[in-house]
Design the sequence.
């Protein structure tokens, strides 16, 4: 008997298509200097990008471009090895000092991406702490979930941002066992923000350490862009802060920061750090330039928050179901995977507006949405155009999502 492997692969894709959540990637060419405009090779036309995580437009900032171009010209392209075997270079050492300084921690460690930073750090931390228990917010990013799973540590999932639930789980555990609380500051799909200070209170009360993913906050919150923990004045209370260099900083890579001993342990034991080629000098130099710029300049943060406020006001006034958020992320509820994809397709084909549909498993079923991220480069005219287009599309498709009903679904 022969096994038809191809038919398994095809059936798996068919299932996704039937559910309306087969992923189709846009094929874009961003033009440095004219972001959020980009050329779509799907439509062949210029589109306005409304769903980028290059939240502040740093991906086209002259200082970042210059730093990267200069580094490539002077140092070449790749790092040429792992950190241990010939790949360590001065630009990455500087970057690690910079992220440590940003979060006012003793040390920093750079990974190839934010995903790898989470997966490798939580995986190693929770497997090395003897008999460790991990408490994980139910909406934590896939990278944290996979790291925790790989650690094989005992895991308790607490309801999203629910302090009472977290405390009941902590209180029920053996006080003698090591405990890690893992959570995010800005949750990227709902745009809500966690009570960092109160979670630190619980951590202190129950003798736990805290692991905070600030991926959707670094560059954008706090006086120096160190994130929500900086804004809330609680940075020194968080044991480990993790971030990305690929979103608001506009480059690529991820990192963690914490005490010397903790970072040195992960540097020495984490396979996801050890057995992979180091980030190239140009990426490290670009990321450092971006961080340093945003530590000094609040212009981008102020402009972003202003644009977000205007955009939210316009959409609410037009009666669009914008989910209530406290951050720079504006999710517009569709509550149906097929309609969500159709709305996105229609925005692109009819209006040259690019907003990717967000469907399960990125968000729970029944909460499918268009996730809009205004940045300082969006003009007033672009915002008016987006609002009009959304209203037209929602009417055309008969989308009647109700944000009030979200609580029942979630
Ligand atoms: C995007 C994301 C990551 C991964 O960061 P990358 O640098 O893109 O790999 C980690 N955590 C959260 C919450 C994210 O949204």
Sequence:
């Amino acid at each position: 008997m022969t096994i038809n492997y191809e038919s398994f692969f095809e059936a798996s894709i068919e299932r996704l298509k039937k559910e309306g959540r087969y992923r189709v990637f846009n094929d874009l060419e961003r033009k440095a200097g004219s972001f959020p405009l980009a050329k779509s090779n799907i439509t062949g036309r210029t589109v306005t990008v409304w769903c980028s995580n290059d939240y502040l437009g740093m991906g086209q900032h002259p200082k970042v471009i210059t730093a990267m171009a200069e580094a490539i010209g002077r140092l070449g392209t790749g790092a040429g090895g792992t950190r241990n075997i010939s790949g360590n270079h001065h630009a990455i050492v500087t970057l690690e000092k910079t992220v440590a300084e940003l979060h006012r921690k003793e040390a920093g460690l750079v990974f190839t991406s934010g995903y790898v930073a989470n997966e490798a750090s939580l995986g190693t931390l929770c497997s090395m702490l003897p008999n460790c228990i991990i408490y994980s917010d139910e909406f934590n990013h896939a990278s944290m979930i996979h790291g925790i799973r790989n650690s094989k540590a005992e895991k308790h999932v607490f309801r999203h941002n629910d302090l009472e639930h977290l405390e009941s789980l902590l209180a029920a555990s053996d006080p003698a066992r090591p405990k890690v609380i893992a959570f995010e500051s800005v949750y990227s799909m709902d745009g809500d923000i966690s009570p960092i200070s109160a979670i630190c209170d619980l951590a202190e009360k129950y003798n736990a350490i805290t692991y905070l993913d600030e991926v959707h906050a670094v560059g954008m919150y706090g006086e120096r862009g160190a994130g929500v923990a900086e804004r809330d004045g609680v940075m020194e209370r968080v044991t480990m802060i993790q971030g990305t260099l690929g979103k608001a900083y506009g480059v690529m890579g991820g990192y963690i920061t914490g005490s010397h001993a903790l970072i040195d342990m992960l540097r020495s034991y984490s396979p996801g750090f050890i057995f992979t080629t180091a980030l190239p000098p140009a990426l490290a130099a670009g990321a450092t330039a971006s961080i340093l710029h945003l530590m000094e300049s609040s212009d981008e943060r102020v402009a972003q928050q202003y644009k977000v406020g205007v955009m939210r006001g316009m959409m609410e006034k037009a009666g669009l179901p914008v989910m209530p958020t406290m951050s720079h992320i504006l999710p517009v509820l569709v509550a149906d995977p097929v309609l969500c994809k159709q709305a996105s397709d229609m925005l692109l084909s009819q209006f040259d507006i690019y907003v990717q549909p967000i469907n399960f498993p990125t968000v729970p079923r029944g909460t499918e949405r268009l996730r809009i991220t205004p940045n300082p480069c969006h003009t007033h005219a672009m915002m008016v155009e987006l609002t009009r287009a959304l209203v037209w599309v929602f009417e055309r498709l008969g989308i009647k999502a109700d944000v009030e009903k979200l609580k029942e679904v979630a």
